[in-house]
Design brief:
There is one protein chain. By secondary structure, the chain is α/β, with parallel strands linked by helices. It has two domains: 4-248 and 448-470, Aldehyde Dehydrogenase, Chain A, domain 1, CATH 3.40.605.10; 252-437, Aldehyde Dehydrogenase, Chain A, domain 2 (3-Layer(aba) Sandwich). It is 40% helix and 22% strand. The strands form seven sheets. The protein has a seven-stranded mixed β-sheet, sandwiched between helices. It has a six-stranded mixed β-sheet with strand order 9-8-7-10-11-23, with helices on both faces. It starts with a strand and ends with a strand.
Protein backbone atom coordinates (compact mmCIF):
# COMPACT_ATOMS: atom_id res chain seq x y z
CA UNK A 1 0.00 0.00 0.00
CA UNK A 2 1.28 3.44 -0.84
CA UNK A 3 2.16 5.72 2.05
CA UNK A 4 -0.93 7.81 1.52
CA UNK A 5 -3.92 8.88 3.51
CA UNK A 6 -7.26 9.50 1.88
CA UNK A 7 -9.00 12.77 2.64
CA UNK A 8 -12.04 12.44 0.43
CA UNK A 9 -10.65 12.54 -3.10
CA UNK A 10 -7.43 14.19 -1.90
CA UNK A 11 -4.35 12.15 -0.94
CA UNK A 12 -1.78 13.56 1.51
CA UNK A 13 1.60 11.91 1.89
CA UNK A 14 2.51 10.98 5.45
CA UNK A 15 5.99 10.04 6.65
CA UNK A 16 5.02 8.30 9.87
CA UNK A 17 4.05 4.75 8.91
CA UNK A 18 2.89 1.67 10.76
CA UNK A 19 3.53 -1.85 9.51
CA UNK A 20 1.00 -4.65 9.61
CA UNK A 21 2.48 -8.11 9.97
CA UNK A 22 0.61 -11.26 9.02
CA UNK A 23 -0.64 -13.08 12.14
CA UNK A 24 0.22 -16.31 10.30
CA UNK A 25 3.67 -15.72 8.79
CA UNK A 26 4.88 -12.68 10.70
CA UNK A 27 5.82 -10.99 7.43
CA UNK A 28 4.95 -7.36 6.71
CA UNK A 29 1.85 -7.39 4.51
CA UNK A 30 0.84 -3.71 4.51
CA UNK A 31 1.76 -0.27 5.75
CA UNK A 32 -0.41 2.66 6.73
CA UNK A 33 0.10 6.26 7.81
CA UNK A 34 -0.38 6.96 11.49
CA UNK A 35 -2.86 9.80 11.73
CA UNK A 36 -3.19 12.23 14.59
CA UNK A 37 -5.72 14.70 15.93
CA UNK A 38 -5.02 17.32 13.27
CA UNK A 39 -5.41 14.78 10.45
CA UNK A 40 -8.73 13.67 11.90
CA UNK A 41 -10.03 17.22 12.28
CA UNK A 42 -9.06 17.91 8.66
CA UNK A 43 -10.97 14.85 7.48
CA UNK A 44 -14.01 15.87 9.52
CA UNK A 45 -13.96 19.38 8.08
CA UNK A 46 -13.74 18.00 4.54
CA UNK A 47 -16.70 15.73 5.26
CA UNK A 48 -18.67 18.63 6.71
CA UNK A 49 -18.01 20.77 3.66
CA UNK A 50 -19.24 17.98 1.39
CA UNK A 51 -22.59 17.48 3.14
CA UNK A 52 -24.47 19.93 0.91
CA UNK A 53 -23.38 18.18 -2.28
CA UNK A 54 -24.18 14.80 -0.76
CA UNK A 55 -27.64 15.87 0.36
CA UNK A 56 -28.44 17.49 -2.98
CA UNK A 57 -27.28 14.53 -5.03
CA UNK A 58 -29.95 12.37 -6.65
CA UNK A 59 -30.87 8.99 -5.30
CA UNK A 60 -30.23 7.64 -8.78
CA UNK A 61 -26.61 8.78 -8.60
CA UNK A 62 -26.08 7.35 -5.13
CA UNK A 63 -27.59 3.97 -6.06
CA UNK A 64 -25.47 3.87 -9.22
CA UNK A 65 -22.46 4.67 -7.05
CA UNK A 66 -23.04 1.68 -4.79
CA UNK A 67 -23.82 -0.68 -7.64
CA UNK A 68 -20.63 0.40 -9.37
CA UNK A 69 -18.68 -0.42 -6.20
CA UNK A 70 -20.40 -3.82 -6.00
CA UNK A 71 -19.41 -4.49 -9.62
CA UNK A 72 -15.77 -3.56 -8.95
CA UNK A 73 -15.76 -5.72 -5.82
CA UNK A 74 -16.85 -8.69 -7.89
CA UNK A 75 -14.11 -8.00 -10.43
CA UNK A 76 -11.48 -7.75 -7.68
CA UNK A 77 -12.87 -10.49 -5.43
CA UNK A 78 -9.77 -12.68 -5.28
CA UNK A 79 -7.34 -9.81 -4.67
CA UNK A 80 -9.43 -8.40 -1.81
CA UNK A 81 -9.96 -11.86 -0.30
CA UNK A 82 -6.20 -12.45 -0.37
CA UNK A 83 -5.68 -9.08 1.35
CA UNK A 84 -8.08 -10.07 4.15
CA UNK A 85 -6.19 -13.32 4.63
CA UNK A 86 -2.83 -11.51 4.60
CA UNK A 87 -3.83 -8.96 7.23
CA UNK A 88 -6.00 -10.89 9.70
CA UNK A 89 -5.26 -14.54 8.94
CA UNK A 90 -8.83 -15.43 7.97
CA UNK A 91 -8.87 -18.69 5.96
CA UNK A 92 -9.09 -17.86 2.29
CA UNK A 93 -12.36 -19.75 1.78
CA UNK A 94 -14.04 -17.59 4.43
CA UNK A 95 -12.32 -14.45 3.14
CA UNK A 96 -13.97 -15.09 -0.23
CA UNK A 97 -17.31 -15.53 1.53
CA UNK A 98 -16.77 -12.17 3.25
CA UNK A 99 -16.22 -10.46 -0.10
CA UNK A 100 -19.41 -12.07 -1.44
CA UNK A 101 -21.33 -10.87 1.60
CA UNK A 102 -19.88 -7.40 1.17
CA UNK A 103 -21.11 -7.32 -2.42
CA UNK A 104 -24.56 -8.29 -1.17
CA UNK A 105 -24.50 -5.67 1.60
CA UNK A 106 -23.61 -2.88 -0.81
CA UNK A 107 -26.18 -4.04 -3.37
CA UNK A 108 -28.90 -4.41 -0.74
CA UNK A 109 -28.26 -0.90 0.53
CA UNK A 110 -28.89 0.53 -2.93
CA UNK A 111 -31.97 -1.59 -3.53
CA UNK A 112 -33.50 -0.83 -0.14
CA UNK A 113 -32.87 2.91 -0.41
CA UNK A 114 -34.86 3.00 -3.64
CA UNK A 115 -37.93 1.91 -1.68
CA UNK A 116 -37.41 3.93 1.53
CA UNK A 117 -40.07 6.60 1.81
CA UNK A 118 -42.10 8.64 4.24
CA UNK A 119 -45.84 8.56 4.89
CA UNK A 120 -48.79 10.89 4.77
CA UNK A 121 -50.46 11.71 8.10
CA UNK A 122 -54.19 12.13 8.76
CA UNK A 123 -54.02 15.27 10.88
CA UNK A 124 -57.81 15.36 11.23
CA UNK A 125 -57.89 11.96 12.95
CA UNK A 126 -58.46 13.57 16.36
CA UNK A 127 -60.97 16.24 17.39
CA UNK A 128 -58.18 18.73 18.07
CA UNK A 129 -56.82 18.37 14.52
CA UNK A 130 -57.90 19.61 11.11
CA UNK A 131 -57.48 18.70 7.48
CA UNK A 132 -54.02 19.49 6.13
CA UNK A 133 -51.49 18.06 3.72
CA UNK A 134 -49.12 16.43 6.14
CA UNK A 135 -46.31 13.96 5.64
CA UNK A 136 -42.86 13.03 6.86
CA UNK A 137 -39.72 12.17 4.93
CA UNK A 138 -36.24 10.94 5.75
CA UNK A 139 -33.24 13.20 5.33
CA UNK A 140 -29.51 12.50 5.79
CA UNK A 141 -28.03 13.39 9.16
CA UNK A 142 -24.88 14.97 7.66
CA UNK A 143 -21.56 13.45 8.76
CA UNK A 144 -21.24 9.87 9.99
CA UNK A 145 -18.14 8.69 11.87
CA UNK A 146 -17.60 4.96 11.36
CA UNK A 147 -15.22 2.87 13.49
CA UNK A 148 -14.74 -0.79 12.55
CA UNK A 149 -13.03 -3.94 13.98
CA UNK A 150 -10.60 -6.56 12.65
CA UNK A 151 -12.71 -9.70 12.57
CA UNK A 152 -14.72 -8.74 9.47
CA UNK A 153 -12.53 -5.97 8.07
CA UNK A 154 -14.48 -5.65 4.82
CA UNK A 155 -18.14 -6.50 5.40
CA UNK A 156 -18.47 -4.62 8.69
CA UNK A 157 -17.07 -1.55 6.92
CA UNK A 158 -19.69 -2.07 4.20
CA UNK A 159 -22.45 -2.21 6.82
CA UNK A 160 -21.55 1.36 7.75
CA UNK A 161 -20.39 2.97 4.50
CA UNK A 162 -23.07 1.69 2.15
CA UNK A 163 -26.17 2.72 4.17
CA UNK A 164 -24.61 6.05 5.18
CA UNK A 165 -23.56 7.09 1.67
CA UNK A 166 -26.67 5.90 -0.16
CA UNK A 167 -28.78 7.89 2.32
CA UNK A 168 -26.93 11.09 1.30
CA UNK A 169 -24.49 11.42 4.19
CA UNK A 170 -20.74 11.91 4.18
CA UNK A 171 -18.47 9.57 6.15
CA UNK A 172 -15.16 9.61 7.97
CA UNK A 173 -14.01 6.03 8.39
CA UNK A 174 -11.50 4.84 10.97
CA UNK A 175 -10.80 1.21 10.07
CA UNK A 176 -9.10 -1.29 12.34
CA UNK A 177 -5.32 -0.89 12.53
CA UNK A 178 -5.05 -4.65 11.89
CA UNK A 179 -6.40 -4.38 8.32
CA UNK A 180 -5.53 -0.98 6.81
CA UNK A 181 -5.00 -2.27 3.26
CA UNK A 182 -8.38 -4.01 3.15
CA UNK A 183 -10.11 -0.75 4.05
CA UNK A 184 -7.88 1.21 1.64
CA UNK A 185 -8.81 -0.98 -1.33
CA UNK A 186 -12.50 -0.84 -0.47
CA UNK A 187 -12.51 2.93 0.04
CA UNK A 188 -10.71 3.46 -3.28
CA UNK A 189 -13.59 1.77 -5.08
CA UNK A 190 -15.96 4.40 -3.67
CA UNK A 191 -13.66 7.36 -4.14
CA UNK A 192 -12.60 6.51 -7.70
CA UNK A 193 -16.08 5.59 -8.96
CA UNK A 194 -17.44 7.69 -11.82
CA UNK A 195 -20.55 8.22 -9.69
CA UNK A 196 -18.70 9.34 -6.55
CA UNK A 197 -19.74 12.45 -4.64
CA UNK A 198 -16.58 14.49 -4.16
CA UNK A 199 -15.14 14.31 -0.63
CA UNK A 200 -18.10 12.30 0.66
CA UNK A 201 -15.76 9.61 2.03
CA UNK A 202 -12.54 10.07 3.98
CA UNK A 203 -10.38 7.46 5.68
CA UNK A 204 -8.14 8.13 8.67
CA UNK A 205 -5.78 5.51 10.07
CA UNK A 206 -4.86 5.26 13.72
CA UNK A 207 -6.11 4.15 17.08
CA UNK A 208 -7.22 5.86 20.31
CA UNK A 209 -6.23 9.42 19.38
CA UNK A 210 -8.08 9.27 16.07
CA UNK A 211 -11.10 7.57 17.60
CA UNK A 212 -11.44 9.99 20.48
CA UNK A 213 -11.16 12.95 18.11
CA UNK A 214 -13.92 11.57 15.90
CA UNK A 215 -16.21 10.82 18.82
CA UNK A 216 -15.63 14.08 20.69
CA UNK A 217 -16.09 16.35 17.68
CA UNK A 218 -19.31 18.29 17.19
CA UNK A 219 -19.23 17.62 13.44
CA UNK A 220 -20.49 14.01 13.23
CA UNK A 221 -24.19 13.56 13.88
CA UNK A 222 -23.89 9.77 14.06
CA UNK A 223 -21.17 7.61 15.60
CA UNK A 224 -21.35 4.03 14.31
CA UNK A 225 -19.00 1.75 16.25
CA UNK A 226 -18.37 -1.99 16.27
CA UNK A 227 -15.96 -3.22 18.92
CA UNK A 228 -15.50 -3.89 22.60
CA UNK A 229 -17.72 -2.98 25.53
CA UNK A 230 -15.04 -0.89 27.33
CA UNK A 231 -14.52 1.27 24.23
CA UNK A 232 -18.27 1.47 23.67
CA UNK A 233 -18.65 2.74 27.22
CA UNK A 234 -16.05 5.46 26.59
CA UNK A 235 -17.82 6.49 23.39
CA UNK A 236 -21.17 6.73 25.16
CA UNK A 237 -19.72 9.03 27.81
CA UNK A 238 -17.79 11.30 25.46
CA UNK A 239 -19.98 11.51 22.33
CA UNK A 240 -22.29 14.25 23.56
CA UNK A 241 -25.66 14.89 21.94
CA UNK A 242 -25.58 12.82 18.78
CA UNK A 243 -26.83 9.47 17.59
CA UNK A 244 -24.62 6.60 18.76
CA UNK A 245 -24.90 3.09 17.30
CA UNK A 246 -22.93 0.45 19.20
CA UNK A 247 -22.43 -3.15 18.11
CA UNK A 248 -20.52 -4.60 21.06
CA UNK A 249 -19.71 -7.92 22.65
CA UNK A 250 -21.66 -11.11 23.08
CA UNK A 251 -21.75 -14.38 24.95
CA UNK A 252 -23.89 -16.44 22.62
CA UNK A 253 -25.66 -19.48 24.01
CA UNK A 254 -27.78 -22.33 22.71
CA UNK A 255 -30.01 -24.98 24.31
CA UNK A 256 -30.09 -28.55 23.03
CA UNK A 257 -33.44 -30.20 23.85
CA UNK A 258 -34.27 -33.90 23.97
CA UNK A 259 -36.29 -33.56 20.77
CA UNK A 260 -33.40 -32.02 18.79
CA UNK A 261 -31.64 -33.61 15.84
CA UNK A 262 -28.32 -34.18 17.64
CA UNK A 263 -26.30 -34.74 14.48
CA UNK A 264 -27.51 -31.43 13.08
CA UNK A 265 -26.97 -29.68 16.41
CA UNK A 266 -23.40 -30.96 16.82
CA UNK A 267 -22.48 -30.08 13.24
CA UNK A 268 -23.86 -26.55 13.42
CA UNK A 269 -22.56 -25.92 16.94
CA UNK A 270 -19.01 -26.86 15.95
CA UNK A 271 -19.23 -24.41 13.06
CA UNK A 272 -20.76 -21.67 15.23
CA UNK A 273 -18.18 -22.06 17.98
CA UNK A 274 -15.05 -22.17 15.83
CA UNK A 275 -15.64 -20.25 12.60
CA UNK A 276 -13.14 -17.38 12.31
CA UNK A 277 -11.29 -18.97 15.25
CA UNK A 278 -14.09 -17.89 17.57
CA UNK A 279 -13.37 -14.23 16.85
CA UNK A 280 -16.99 -13.28 16.20
CA UNK A 281 -19.32 -11.33 18.48
CA UNK A 282 -21.94 -14.05 18.02
CA UNK A 283 -19.54 -17.00 18.33
CA UNK A 284 -21.24 -19.84 20.19
CA UNK A 285 -19.70 -19.88 23.64
CA UNK A 286 -22.21 -21.65 25.90
CA UNK A 287 -24.11 -24.86 25.08
CA UNK A 288 -26.78 -25.88 27.59
CA UNK A 289 -27.64 -29.56 27.04
CA UNK A 290 -30.54 -31.54 28.45
CA UNK A 291 -29.11 -34.05 30.94
CA UNK A 292 -30.78 -37.03 29.21
CA UNK A 293 -28.76 -36.46 26.02
CA UNK A 294 -25.70 -34.70 27.46
CA UNK A 295 -23.21 -37.54 27.08
CA UNK A 296 -24.38 -38.42 23.56
CA UNK A 297 -24.23 -34.81 22.42
CA UNK A 298 -20.81 -34.22 24.02
CA UNK A 299 -19.40 -37.17 22.10
CA UNK A 300 -20.90 -35.96 18.82
CA UNK A 301 -19.65 -32.42 19.44
CA UNK A 302 -16.11 -33.66 20.03
CA UNK A 303 -16.22 -35.81 16.89
CA UNK A 304 -17.47 -32.93 14.73
CA UNK A 305 -14.79 -30.64 16.12
CA UNK A 306 -12.04 -33.14 15.28
CA UNK A 307 -13.00 -32.84 11.60
CA UNK A 308 -12.09 -29.15 11.44
CA UNK A 309 -8.78 -28.46 9.74
CA UNK A 310 -6.46 -26.01 11.49
CA UNK A 311 -3.62 -24.77 9.33
CA UNK A 312 -2.42 -22.31 6.73
CA UNK A 313 -5.12 -19.74 5.97
CA UNK A 314 -4.02 -19.87 2.33
CA UNK A 315 -5.19 -23.48 1.89
CA UNK A 316 -8.68 -23.78 0.44
CA UNK A 317 -9.71 -26.51 2.89
CA UNK A 318 -8.51 -24.78 6.07
CA UNK A 319 -11.33 -24.07 8.51
CA UNK A 320 -9.32 -22.28 11.22
CA UNK A 321 -6.28 -20.08 10.87
CA UNK A 322 -4.38 -18.10 13.51
CA UNK A 323 -5.75 -15.88 16.22
CA UNK A 324 -5.16 -12.20 15.60
CA UNK A 325 -2.10 -11.82 17.87
CA UNK A 326 -0.04 -13.40 20.66
CA UNK A 327 -2.04 -11.66 23.36
CA UNK A 328 -5.23 -13.33 22.12
CA UNK A 329 -3.53 -16.75 22.31
CA UNK A 330 -2.22 -16.17 25.82
CA UNK A 331 -5.64 -14.98 26.95
CA UNK A 332 -7.36 -18.03 25.39
CA UNK A 333 -5.01 -20.51 27.06
CA UNK A 334 -5.60 -18.72 30.34
CA UNK A 335 -9.36 -19.22 29.98
CA UNK A 336 -8.87 -22.96 29.42
CA UNK A 337 -6.36 -23.49 32.22
CA UNK A 338 -8.51 -21.60 34.73
CA UNK A 339 -11.55 -23.66 33.78
CA UNK A 340 -9.62 -26.92 34.20
CA UNK A 341 -8.44 -25.80 37.63
CA UNK A 342 -12.09 -25.09 38.51
CA UNK A 343 -13.15 -28.60 37.52
CA UNK A 344 -14.01 -28.42 33.81
CA UNK A 345 -12.91 -31.26 31.52
CA UNK A 346 -11.49 -30.65 28.02
CA UNK A 347 -12.91 -33.15 25.52
CA UNK A 348 -10.02 -32.37 23.18
CA UNK A 349 -6.50 -31.71 24.41
CA UNK A 350 -5.88 -27.96 24.66
CA UNK A 351 -3.25 -27.12 22.08
CA UNK A 352 -1.45 -24.00 20.92
CA UNK A 353 1.21 -23.75 18.21
CA UNK A 354 2.38 -20.16 17.89
CA UNK A 355 -0.74 -18.18 17.02
CA UNK A 356 -2.60 -21.35 16.08
CA UNK A 357 -5.04 -22.11 18.89
CA UNK A 358 -6.82 -25.38 18.26
CA UNK A 359 -10.57 -25.70 18.91
CA UNK A 360 -11.38 -26.54 22.49
CA UNK A 361 -14.58 -28.16 23.80
CA UNK A 362 -14.92 -27.91 27.58
CA UNK A 363 -17.31 -30.26 29.41
CA UNK A 364 -18.68 -30.22 32.96
CA UNK A 365 -18.64 -26.43 33.05
CA UNK A 366 -20.61 -24.70 35.80
CA UNK A 367 -22.24 -21.29 35.94
CA UNK A 368 -19.67 -19.77 38.28
CA UNK A 369 -16.70 -20.38 35.95
CA UNK A 370 -15.34 -17.28 34.22
CA UNK A 371 -15.22 -19.17 30.93
CA UNK A 372 -19.02 -18.92 30.64
CA UNK A 373 -19.50 -15.59 32.41
CA UNK A 374 -17.35 -13.43 30.11
CA UNK A 375 -16.77 -13.12 26.37
CA UNK A 376 -13.78 -15.30 25.43
CA UNK A 377 -13.47 -14.27 21.73
CA UNK A 378 -11.48 -17.42 21.01
CA UNK A 379 -12.15 -20.98 19.73
CA UNK A 380 -13.47 -22.26 23.06
CA UNK A 381 -16.96 -23.59 23.74
CA UNK A 382 -18.43 -24.83 27.03
CA UNK A 383 -20.97 -27.59 27.65
CA UNK A 384 -23.29 -27.15 30.63
CA UNK A 385 -25.63 -29.95 31.77
CA UNK A 386 -29.19 -28.83 32.61
CA UNK A 387 -32.41 -30.57 33.62
CA UNK A 388 -34.60 -28.96 30.96
CA UNK A 389 -35.38 -25.61 29.30
CA UNK A 390 -36.77 -24.24 32.59
CA UNK A 391 -33.33 -24.86 34.05
CA UNK A 392 -31.45 -23.51 31.02
CA UNK A 393 -33.50 -20.33 30.47
CA UNK A 394 -32.39 -18.27 33.50
CA UNK A 395 -28.80 -19.40 32.98
CA UNK A 396 -28.81 -18.29 29.36
CA UNK A 397 -30.34 -14.95 30.27
CA UNK A 398 -28.02 -14.47 33.25
CA UNK A 399 -25.41 -12.60 31.24
CA UNK A 400 -24.58 -8.93 30.84
CA UNK A 401 -24.74 -9.59 27.09
CA UNK A 402 -27.73 -10.28 24.86
CA UNK A 403 -26.76 -10.42 21.20
CA UNK A 404 -28.02 -13.73 19.76
CA UNK A 405 -29.21 -17.02 21.27
CA UNK A 406 -30.48 -20.22 19.72
CA UNK A 407 -32.41 -23.38 20.56
CA UNK A 408 -32.31 -26.80 18.90
CA UNK A 409 -35.69 -28.43 19.25
CA UNK A 410 -38.60 -30.03 17.39
CA UNK A 411 -41.04 -28.95 20.10
CA UNK A 412 -43.28 -26.09 18.92
CA UNK A 413 -44.27 -25.04 22.42
CA UNK A 414 -40.60 -24.79 23.44
CA UNK A 415 -39.89 -22.80 20.27
CA UNK A 416 -42.56 -20.27 21.19
CA UNK A 417 -41.22 -19.99 24.73
CA UNK A 418 -37.68 -19.44 23.48
CA UNK A 419 -38.80 -16.63 21.18
CA UNK A 420 -40.79 -14.98 23.97
CA UNK A 421 -38.49 -15.49 26.95
CA UNK A 422 -34.86 -15.42 25.76
CA UNK A 423 -33.40 -11.97 26.32
CA UNK A 424 -31.42 -11.19 23.19
CA UNK A 425 -31.55 -9.13 20.02
CA UNK A 426 -31.84 -12.23 17.85
CA UNK A 427 -33.24 -15.74 18.39
CA UNK A 428 -32.39 -18.64 16.07
CA UNK A 429 -34.31 -21.92 16.05
CA UNK A 430 -32.51 -25.10 14.93
CA UNK A 431 -29.27 -23.44 13.99
CA UNK A 432 -26.27 -21.81 15.63
CA UNK A 433 -26.62 -18.36 17.24
CA UNK A 434 -23.71 -17.36 14.98
CA UNK A 435 -26.09 -17.29 12.02
CA UNK A 436 -26.47 -13.85 10.44
CA UNK A 437 -28.05 -12.74 7.21
CA UNK A 438 -26.95 -9.27 6.12
CA UNK A 439 -30.51 -8.23 5.23
CA UNK A 440 -31.81 -8.80 8.77
CA UNK A 441 -31.81 -6.36 11.71
CA UNK A 442 -28.71 -7.11 13.74
CA UNK A 443 -27.90 -5.88 17.21
CA UNK A 444 -28.29 -6.72 20.86
CA UNK A 445 -29.66 -5.75 24.25
CA UNK A 446 -27.93 -4.96 27.52
CA UNK A 447 -24.15 -4.58 27.07
CA UNK A 448 -24.31 -6.00 23.56
CA UNK A 449 -25.12 -2.61 22.18
CA UNK A 450 -27.53 0.08 21.06
CA UNK A 451 -29.21 0.35 17.67
CA UNK A 452 -29.47 -2.05 14.75
CA UNK A 453 -27.47 -2.74 11.61
CA UNK A 454 -28.54 -4.31 8.35
CA UNK A 455 -29.06 -1.98 5.33
CA UNK A 456 -32.65 -0.90 5.99
CA UNK A 457 -32.15 -0.49 9.73
CA UNK A 458 -28.81 1.29 9.40
CA UNK A 459 -30.36 3.73 6.92
CA UNK A 460 -33.05 4.49 9.51
CA UNK A 461 -30.31 5.10 12.12
CA UNK A 462 -28.41 7.38 9.73
CA UNK A 463 -31.33 9.58 8.71
CA UNK A 464 -33.60 12.05 10.47
CA UNK A 465 -37.36 12.31 10.10
CA UNK A 466 -38.60 15.69 8.90
CA UNK A 467 -42.29 16.36 9.45
CA UNK A 468 -44.13 18.69 7.02
CA UNK A 469 -47.59 20.27 7.39
CA UNK A 470 -49.21 22.34 4.65
CA UNK A 471 -52.36 24.10 5.88
Amino acid sequence: MNAKIFFGSTEATKENLSERKSPYSGKVVSTAPICDESDTKKALKIAQNATKDAKNSTLSQRCSWLLDVAKKLKENKEDIAQTITDEVGKPIAFARVEVERCIETVTLSAEIMRTMHGETINTDAMASGKKTISFFRREPVGVVAAITPFNFPLNLVAHKLAPALVAGNTVVLKPTPEAPLTAYKFAKLFIESEFAIKDALSVVYGDAEVGSTLVGSDIPRVISFTGSVPVGNIITKSAGIKKVGLELGGNAATYISKSADLDLAASRCSLGAFVNSGQVCISLQRIYVNADIYDEFALKMAEETKKLKVGSPYDDDTFMGPLIDDEACIRAMGWVQNAIEEGAKPLLEPKRDGRMFYPCVMADVTDDMAIVCEEVFAPIVSLVKVDDFDDALPRMNNSPYGLQFSVFTNDLALTNRAIDELDAGGIIINDMPTLRFDIQPYGGVKLSGVGREGPRFAIEEMTEIKSVVIC
